[in-house]
Specification:
Maltoporin, Chain A; about 55% strand; single chain; 7 helices; Immunoglobulin-like; five-stranded mixed β-sheet; disordered N terminus; 22-stranded antiparallel beta barrel; mainly beta
Amino acid sequence: MKHLLNILLLLAVTNIYSQNEIKGTVIDANTNETLPLVNIYFPDIERGTTTNDTGHFSLNNLPNGNYDMVISFIGYKTQSLKIDIPSKLPLNISLSPSAIEMEDIIISTPFHKLQSENVMKVEQKSIAELKTSGAISLADGISNIAGVNNVSTGMGIGKPVIRGLSSNRVIVYTQGVRLENQQFGDEHGLGLNDAGVESVEVIKGPASLLYGSDALGGVLYLNPEKFAPMNSDAGDLNVNYFSNTLGYNANAGYKSSSDNFKLLFRASQTEHSDYKTKDYRATNSRFTEQDFKAGIGYQDNKFKTDFRYNLNHSKLGIPGSIGAHSLAKSPLLPYQNITNHVFSSKSTLFFNNSRLDINLGYIYNDRKEFEEEHHHDHGAEEEEEDDHDDHDDHDDHEEDLEAALHMKLKTFNYDLKYNLPELGKFETIVGIQGMNQINSNYGEEFLIPDAITNDFGVFGTSHIHFNRADVQLGIRYDRRTLDVPNLLNKNYNSFNGALGVKTNITEKLVARVNLATGFRAPNLAELTSDGVHHGTNRYEIGNVNLNNEQNFQTDLAIEYKRDYLEFFVNGFYNLVNNYIYLLPTGDVINETPVYQYAQNDARLYGGEMGIHFHPYNVEWLHIESSFETVTGKQSNNNYLPLIPANSINNTVRVEFERPWLTQGYSFIKLATTFKQDNVSDFETPTAGYSLLSAGIGGNINLFNNETTIRISGTNLTNKSYFNHLSRLKSDGIYNMGRNISIGISYKF
């Protein structure tokens, strides 16, 4: 593989490089001993290395400018330093021991800061951390982040909810580009797999300044896995088994890098049977998924580029009632057959003390939905616990079936940001963003019509450094046009701004205050629907007179952090003008209740709080507790739909090392969800419940390679319960019962 990369290098256009180089040494601040294997990383340049056995490091072929350098090592406080390149003198860096986990760079915000330096509060979790909880899917995993839930249709379909807002009010970014996959539907899932994803970041609150229309409620930002370090290669194999669904997911990847070229690829396969509750299996909650990711990058001291491709294909059963039980994996009718293609390109041109970032994306979403046909009696074809046939009879005839709903959504988006040279205390970014989107119908049913959507936005934002405070501010203008041939042509526009302040009240106490406005133009479903939406069992009628949703949110975050104690309180108040919602009319068409889109002002308020305690001199013990709450009301004091119930999570975690085991851990968690009786006119209250989980894992050496083993159990008491955001609640179908998951990751 390295020979192939060298051939590509010889074929490339030769560039003349300046030999910018930095060198340095990293030591323990208490003992002055040098530290090996410390991570040195420049997030803006995407170049890094590690210290050698004597604590020394060097990096060459770097662009001119002033860049953040992040130094991180397990058991030490992460540092971020501003480095002028070229650097004339070797760097001497001291790291202080700390029981607090290492910090990572926040990518979803424009200035790529550590969270401790960030003006905006952003939640970040690694996929490896989410996997320890035993999550079956990515949507299931992110619901472990404070303030984040998901509207679920079984285990295969889930969409993120951030502080009570979801669907088109939450933007999802993958591979650095905005994901568009018909997210207006409650039963339309993410269409993404966690294989090849390194971490998840969540911006809670309006992020329209950075991302434009639809970022009214927040942003879910998925960071893809990094390429291999320079002049190295690596591979890994990951397998996870789930007892409840008798399911598995497996993926394998390989990556390699030379001085300038780098590549990676990863393939995964997922299959699950119907999930099991205490009393029955949820018929047709089964699903299968195949995923492939690939990337190629090139970098020198003036230019870097990263091209990635993701193909995701899934077949997702739609549960509706409890029928015959089966352990088959292929869905029955009705089911969704969805293919997502995501092409992305991220490039940076480096100038003296400034740079231009160019992100381009093309997303091709092919959605097919197949309905039940009376001449296919699948229930009679399956016997109780019959696991000898993983392919239901309808698969043999799928070529003969016509998709009742078939939509293709093709989206091109672009994002250009110019990072101006720093001027005194000011870091400033200006940019433009836009999108062209074409929706086409090919089935006999129409949820939304053929249409063309165009977005254009221009913005500027600055980060200002003061001695005791950091300030971030910005302004943005957006315009959206919707063109539905022979039906409507709409234009929407909005100015939005944001102001945030982070200040150190004391050395250990930090406060963040953020004020921001956001907007969302009504989507095609809200404007033009006129028919039965089978996924929600409603006859939905749109309203072409809907206006922009416009909001103003105040967010206050207080954090107290010592070596052995962390405490945080986040509070928010979100005022949304012209909130769009579905209102039952009381009529019935084709034996289906009629709902019509309407608008009313609304407000959401609540927050999160938590504590993380390490007893002094008992650094291996971690005690964590968090609480989250959100309330959503219309101006007439009626409650908003799909608002998650209040919850509290308590976790005790133990970390340990053995001669044969590194980074060992075990945990026990009790998650309590309270009764939700603040419900909208067409919801019913949901009883509270508590779920017990536990897990153990760590790294061992197998055939001279690192191997990670994880064992976890969720809902260990096998409790029957309804989550308020489960779409199967109205059908009387419980959420999943006890599940034991086993995961193995082998690096080579």
